[in-house]
Amino acid sequence: MHLRQAILQIDQQTYALTPNRANSFDEIFVDFRQEPPEQGGGVRYHIFLHPKQDVTVRRLELQFEIPTQPDDRFFANGYQSWSESRLLRVTDQLPPLRRLARSRLGHSGDEHIADIPRGDGYLHSWTYTYFQRANGKSSLFCGSLHEKTGFTLLLYDQRNGLLTVRKDLSNLRLSHSFPALDIWMDEGEERDLFDRYFQAMELPPPIAPPALGWTNRQRHSTNISAEILSKDLDSLIDTPITQATSPAYFQIEDGWQTAVGDWLSIQPGFPGGMTRMAADIRAKGLLPGIWLAPFVAVKNSDLVKKHPDWLLKDARGRPLRVGWNPQWGGWYYALDFYNGAVRDYLSGVFHIITEKWGFELVKLDFLFAVCLAPPPGKTRGAVMYEAMEFLRQQVGKKRIQVCGVPLGSCFGLADYCQVGSGMNLVWTHWLSAFLRHRERTGVLAGLHSTLGRWALNGRAFHNDPGVFVLREKAQKLTLPQQQTVLIINVLLGNLLFTSDDLSQYSPEQTAELEEALMLRRSQIITVREIETDCYVISFEQKKERYIAYCNLTKEQQFLAADHKNGRIEIQPFETIVLRSESNS
User: Fold this and answer.
1) Residues 6+ apart with CB under 8 A from 345
2) SS3 455
3) Residues 207, 415: contact at Cβ < 8 Å?
4) What are phi and psi of 166, to 5 degrees?
C-alpha cells in the first residue's frame, strides 16, 4: 500500500498534492494530512479545501499502488442498499446495465454517474472496500470516515495495481472552506478491521434492539385492507414471532395509501383509518410499522397534479423521472428536498404517522431519488446526508428502517437497513439478471448482499436481510432454498421478517423456525466464499464455535471442511451447520 499521487483539479488547473506539507496555490489552499487516527491503528488521509476565491471543483482523488494476485478478491459495495454487493475476483468486472433498460432502471444505481471505468479488471465500490487475499492472510481495508460532503468512490484497476479513491465532487461550486475527503486504511483480519473502522469513525453501535416481525410485502403485495391484515394479525398469536423476547413488529407495506406521494389519503379498505389499524396491532402485543417513500411521487397522485413545482427538475428544467414501476402505474418522480413546501408537507406527514396514528417503525424506501440532481454548491452525498438528518429529526425516538439508500449516508442515522434488493420469492429474477440490473430483486442477489455486507450488522445499523418464508404455496423456492435463506438471515441479520401465516405451520415448520432462531445474536467471525456461490460462515454461539456451509448453486458440492475427513458433501441450495473441530 503506497500513495502514488493525489490530484486536485480546480476550474481548468490540475494540482498534485503532497501530504503533511503546505499546498498553497493561486485559487486555493489545501490542508492535506496523512496521520494515524485518534484511536486504533491504520493510516488516515484527510483533505480540507480552503478556496481563496470562488472555484469549481472538477476532480479530487488519491491513487494507491496495491498489487494483487488473480485469485485475490475485491469487495464491490453497490451504490445503494438495493445494489448487489459481493466479493469479486480482482480480474472480474461489473458489466453495465443494458442500454434498453437504462431509461427505466438507470437512476436506481450508478449508471447515471460519469467516468466509472467498466470491463475486465476494472472494479469499483462505494464508501468502503477491502481486498481479501487468496492465501487467507490479512485483508487490506479502505473506507470513508464520513459521507457528509460527498460520496466516496473506490476504483480498482487490476492491470496496473492501482486503487483510486475519488470523492464525488464533480462541478461543485465552492466559496468556503470544505472538508472534502477523510479516509482510513488498515490491514488485518476482517472482523477487527470493521471494529477499528467504526471506532475511527467514532460511531457508536445502534441504540435500537434487534427485532422480529411480520410484513405483508411477500404475501398480498399492494392488495391490502384492514380486513385482510386483521386476519394476518390474528394468525401471529402464540407463534415464535410473538413469543420471542425481542420487539416484534407488524409492518404494513405499500398499498395502504391511495397513491405514492399522497401519504395522508388512505385506501377505502381501511374504514377506521390508520389510527385504528395501529391500535389493533398494539392490542395483539405487536408494534405497528408502516412503509412509505417520502421523496418520490407517481404521476397520477394529487401531489403531482396540484404541486408540479414540488418536483425535482433535470438540467432542462423538466420534472425528473427517476424510475418506472408497473405496480404504481408507470413513471415516478423525485421531490425537491430544498423546496420549503416539500419539507413542510413531509414534516406534517411524519407527525401524523408517528404521533397521531401511533406507528413505532417507519420503513423509508426509494430514498436514493432525493440526491439525483443536487443544487449548485452541494454534492449528491451532501444532499443524501442532509435528507437523512431531516428524516431522523422528523421520526425522533421512533425507529427508522431504510431501503433504497446509499449506505454511507445512513451510518448512525438509521436503526435498521435493508442491505439487499429484497426477496421476491424466486431464486433468480432472470429478466433483471439478463439486463445486468444490480438493483434487481431475487433471492440469490439478496443473499449475495447479505453475505457481503455482514460486517455492517450491529455496527453501522442493524441489517435487514429481507423476508424469509417457510410456506409451501404462493412462492417458488424449494425447501432447501427456504432453509438456506432462513439460516443466513438469522446469522447475518438483526431485523428478521416473514410474510407467512404462522398459524398454518406444521409442527415440523414451527420446530425449524424455533431452532433457527436459537442462532440469533451469534458472533460472526468470518464469511468467506470458497467456491463460486459456496460460502462458509464461521461463528460463535454460547462460547462454542460453529461453521455454516452454504451452497447457493444448483449442483452438489464437496467443500473443504473443518472436520476429520477434510471435505463435506452438500446438496444443491443446502446449508449445513456443524460444530467446529476447533472446539475440541
Assistant:
1) 303, 310
2) helix
3) yes
4) -115, 130
The sheet carrying 462-464 orders its strands as 462-464, 416-418, 399-402, 361-364, 287-292, 248-252, 211-215, 495-498, 467-468
Strands 13-17 and 2-10: antiparallel
Contacts made by residues 374-380, CB under 8 angstroms, sequence distance 24+: 375/338, 376/173, 377/172, 377/173, 377/174, 377/175, 378/172, 379/149, 379/150, 379/151, 379/168, 379/169, 379/172, 380/150, 380/151, 380/168
Supply φ then ψ for residue 217, to 5 degrees. Answer: -55, -50
Measured CA to CA, the distance from residue 545 to residue 525 in angstroms comes to 9
pLDDT digits (tens, 9 = 90+) for 248-286: 999 999 999 999 999 999 999 999 999 999 999 999 999
* Cα 124 to Cα 77: distance, rounded to the nearest angstrom: 8
Query: Torsion angle, CA of 186/68/407/93, rounded to 10 degrees?
Result: 180
**Which amino acid belongs to residue 24?**
S
C-alpha cell at 191: 472482523
Residues 6+ apart with CB under 8 A from 202: none
**Phi (first) and psi of residue 66, to 5 degrees:** -135, 85
Q: Contact at 8 Å (CB) between 122 and 157?
A: yes
**Cα–Cα distance between 581 and 40 in angstroms, integer?**
32
323 and 108 in contact (C-beta within 8 Å)? yes
Degrees to nearest 5, angle at CA 77 with 331 and 456? 110
CA–CA separation, 561 vs 582, rounded Å? 12
CB 285 within 8 A of CB 242: yes
As beta bridge partners, residue 29 has: 24, 50
d(CA 545, CA 583): 6
On whether the CB atoms of residues 449 and 86 are closer than 8 A, the answer is yes
pLDDT tens readout for residues 388-441: 999 999 999 999 999 999 999 999 999 999 999 876 789 998 899 999 999 999
